[in-house]
Design goal:
By secondary structure, the chain is an alpha/beta fold. Helix content is 29%, strand content 24%. The protein has helices spanning 63-71, 91-105, 107-110, 124-134, 174-179, 186-192, 208-213, 241-252, 275-289; strands spanning 7-21, 24-36, 43-49, 75-79, 112-122, 155-159, 226-232, 257-262. It starts with 6 loop residues before the first strand and ends with a helix.
Length: 290
């Protein structure tokens, strides 16, 4: 029988970072899908960040899509990052970049080709992936170990992630837009934390300068990697406007980018599990990484 799909091994709970502060003790982990390629060739790498609403990461989610890419010959490495309210921006970006440096450090151990690394995420994971991709070379986000290794990204896929955290509900009706001005929204807690002790908290609109730092558009320049962006036209959680402004600003800067509207698609709906979408993702990473 002719082999068309590689064997894929699963390596879970690899600790890439320890958080030890007076108030926090946490181990952050990677879960790796590792394809065994012909002639034992090292596999190209795609880092994946699962959407969490910024608050709780389900590391078991999206397995179908991750396995789809792994069977196409990519090492798909899921990254756990800190979440709110325990950690505010830029903790998530610092974590993702630390994970990328860790993977480059341990490339031989896992038989990885790390010359070019892709990043991919859905919803808040798409936001995290995109911040990392647009901030190649931003030293403010480089903390921790393995600093001799690069955290640069060569390609980014964003599934329906927010861009400007001040406009997540734009165009979805006055009640929804007004609701996003609450200090209890997860995007507000991501940027401003919770009201506790000496921290006043605040809505996402209470400190526009802080919100701007968590906006991908702040970091976009012509050196950014290629982007493939997907958004459902019926997304009622993250406005399709978010992907539109990301795409428009990438193109304005001269960055290769494509925006795919998934007709009738909802936020994380079944449309994004179909081969038609995943083939586009695989073809994009094939072109950019291999």
């Amino acid at each position: 029988m002719k082999q068309t799909v590689p064997r894929v091994d699963y390596v879970s709970n690899v600790v890439y970072k320890q958080i030890n502060t007076p108030n926090s003790h946490q181990s952050l982990v990677l879960n790796l899908l590792l394809p065994k390629l012909k002639d034992d060739a090292p596999a190209p790498v795609v880092m994946f960040v699962k959407g969490s609403g910024f608050t709780a990461m389900n590391l078991d989610g999206f397995m179908q899509q991750r396995m789809y890419l792994a069977q196409k010959g990519f090492a798909v490495i899921e990254v756990e990052t800190r979440v709110v309210p325990q950690a505010t921006f830029p903790a998530q970006t610092i974590d993702l970049k630390a994970a990328i440096r860790f993977v480059r450090t341990h490339a031989k151990e896992f038989n990885l080709n790390v010359d070019k690394i892709g990043v991919w995420g859905d919803s808040s994971g798409g936001w995290a992936a995109t911040v990392a991709a647009t901030s190649n070379g931003v030293k403010d986000f480089e903390e921790g170990e393995n600093l001799d290794f690069s955290s640069d990204i060569a390609a980014c896929v964003d599934f329906y992630g927010p861009t400007d955290l001040q406009t997540i509900g734009k165009g979805q009706g006055k009640d929804i837009e007004k609701g996003h001005d609450s200090s209890s929204t997860t995007e507000a807690m991501l940027v401003n934390g919770t009201a506790f002790g000496t921290n006043p908290g605040g809505s996402i609109n209470s400190d526009p300068e802080k919100a701007k730092k968590a906006n991908h558009i702040t970091y976009i320049d012509k050196k950014d990697p290629a982007f493939l962006i997907f958004h459902g036209t019926n997304d009622n959680l993250v406005s399709v406007y978010e992907s539109q402004i990301l795409y428009e600003n990438l193109k304005k800067a001269g960055v290769p980018a494509k925006l795919v509207y998934v007709k009738g698609g909802t936020h994380g709906g079944v449309d994004f599990y179909q081969p038609e979408i995943m083939d586009m993702v695989a073809d994009f990473f094939e072109e950019q990484l291999k």
